[in-house]
Design brief:
It is a single chain. This protein has helices at residues 3-9, 33-38, 52-55, 57-67, 79-83, 90-101, 119-127, 129-143, 157-164, 180-199, 223-228, 252-266, 291-307, 342-354, and strands at 27-29, 31-32, 40-43, 71-76, 104-109, 148-152, 205-206, 240-242, 271-276, 312-315, 366-372, 377-382, 388-393, 399-400, 405-406, 412-418, 422-427, 442-447, 453-457, 462-468. The protein has 469 residues and is α/β, with parallel strands linked by helices. Helix 6 packs parallel to helix 8 (129-143), helix 8 packs across helix 10 and helix 9 (157-164) packs antiparallel against helix 10 (180-199). The radius of gyration is 25 Å and the shape is globular.
């Protein structure tokens, strides 16, 4: 008997056995990387005469190209407003932007003069045939160059009703919340849809947007529910619309309610969030966040919208306003001088990390994967080379709204269970210490069918790349 056989017989050593495979996780949907990147856009105002878009036009175009988005949302109240006859040349700027970068425009046909001081003037402006024709002419000037990809109804007209006639505005009584703005928009959108189809064939129409959504302690109104009481209006647009701002709070808490309310109008049509963003300049009412918090919350908000199926999300906005208007216009990814803020740098890194590096092939539609962890949110993006990027984030606050200070939530452990062996690496696009650094993935070991991968998720999102072996 050999020495090994003798030892086995004596029970001194035992044969090694392979770890038992874990239960195979169910497949989860994976969004193609190209669709994720295509689902991002930025609001601009290239026709505003005192804006950075006008006085630093080329720099703003360069920043958009640097950021990596392929869509902007812009518009005006008339041909003069849209074209920028004040010398800014809004339509021309958007056309040259497309020719230089391939960035296309969703044109907001606002049909509303923001200088109106009475309700009757606001209604007259909305109903003006001449204004609608002017706006369609502006959109046509974008279409003939290829720069136009869609048109959109009036922007947040429910805020004008509140501004010009506070006496009929009862923010605490939803059931009697039947105001003229609702009926005017309901009349306008079918007319816009009909004329747009004739003047701009093949160009989809996005529904009008509303400012007041799911109730919050500071604003318990709900324009979406008020409009939804008119019944199904989906024959008047191809794409739904919402503005799911989170104020100064973490974005995750209110997103589900925004989708529910917007779906009451858009039903099963594709749905866009045409404005999200965070105000990051100190002001007396306390309704601001730090630039650090804005960069983290913005990425989490974008990921949350993608995870819930938004067709596209437009960040509001590219640039801050001039100093004289900074109390109103400090939403920018860059400041008025064009200098990038943390949010710009974080979003640039997110887009670069998610972009598909392979030009041909088809990305997998799903992946067997289970993600667990207290409160952990996730979204899976698939690439054509067979790899996946799993975005992980937690809903913890990174801004104390009372003390108005940055906070750091405790990290949460997330576990990724897979059905095969993957090489894993991680990247944090909003890591404040590395915002000016290029994308760099850190090796994180392997995830296998017998051993889940554990990832620590801080307040900012973590991307996990899984490459099959």
């Amino acid at each position: 008997m050999t020495s090994i056989a003798a030892a086995l017989a004596a029970g001194l050593i035992a044969l090694a056995t392979a770890p038992a495979a874990l239960a195979a996780p169910a497949p989860v949907p994976a969004q193609p990387a190209t669709a994720f990147v295509d689902g991002l856009g930025v609001n601009t105002h290239f026709s505003w005469n005192d804006s950075a878009y006008c006085v630093k036009k080329q720099l703003m175009k360069d920043r958009l190209a640097e950021l990596g988005v392929k869509h902007v949302r812009d518009g005006g109240e008339s041909w003069a407003g849209f074209a920028g006859t004040n010398g800014c040349g809004g339509v021309q700027a958007l056309n040259t932007l497309y020719q230089a970068t391939g960035i296309r425009t969703q044109a907001v046909l606002n049909a509303l003069n923001r200088s109106v001081t009475t309700q009757s003037a606001a209604v007259a402006a909305l109903d003006s045939t001449g204004v609608m024709n002017d706006l369609l002419d502006a959109a046509y000037a974008l279409k003939v160059t290829g720069a136009l990809e869609s048109v959109e109804g009036p922007n947040e007209y429910d805020t004008v009703e509140k501004t010009v006639n506070v006496n009929v505005f009862d923010p605490k009584n939803w059931n009697s919340y039947v105001l003229p703005w609702r009926d005017r928009i309901a009349s306008f959108m079918p007319e816009l849809h009909t004329r747009s189809q004739a003047r701009l064939p093949g160009v989809p129409v996005v529904n009008a947007s509303f400012a007041y959504g799911p109730p919050r302690t500071y604003d318990p109104t709900n324009s979406y529910k008020a409009y939804a009481r008119l019944g199904d209006r989906t024959s008047t647009f191809e794409i739904g619309n919402m503005h799911p701002y989170a104020g100064i709070d973490a974005p995750e808490g209110g997103v589900a309610a925004w989708f529910t309310d917007a779906r009451a109008i858009s039903r099963t049509l594709p749905l866009q969030a045409t404005e999200i963003g965070y105000f990051d300049k100190l002001r007396s009412d306390g309704r601001y966040v730090s630039r650090r918090a804005a960069s983290i919350y913005l990425l989490r908000h974008i990921l949350e919208m993608a995870a819930r199926g938004a067709q596209r999300t437009y960040v509001y906005e590219l640039a801050d306003g001039p100093a004289a208007k900074s109390d109103l216009y400090s939403w920018g990814l860059v400041d008025f001088s064009g200098a990038p803020k943390p949010a710009f740098l974080a979003l640039k890194r997110l887009i670069a990390a998610m972009r598909d590096q392979q030009a041909t092939g088809t990305a997998p539609a799903s992946v067997p994967l289970a993600v667990t962890g207290t409160g952990i949110r996730s979204h899976v993006v698939a690439r054509r080379d067979g790899s996946y990027v799993v975005a992980l984030w937690q809903p913890g606050a990174v801004w104390n709204t009372s003390a108005r200070t940055d906070v750091t939530p405790a990290a949460v452990a997330a576990q990724l269970t897979v059905d095969r062996t993957y090489d894993a690496s991680t990247f944090r696009p909003a890591d404040q210490a590395a915002l000016t650094s290029p994308v760099g993935w850190t090796a994180a070991g392997q995830a296998t069918s017998t051993q889940p991968l554990t990832v620590s998720v801080p307040g900012d999102p973590v991307l996990v790349m899984l490459k099959p072996r």
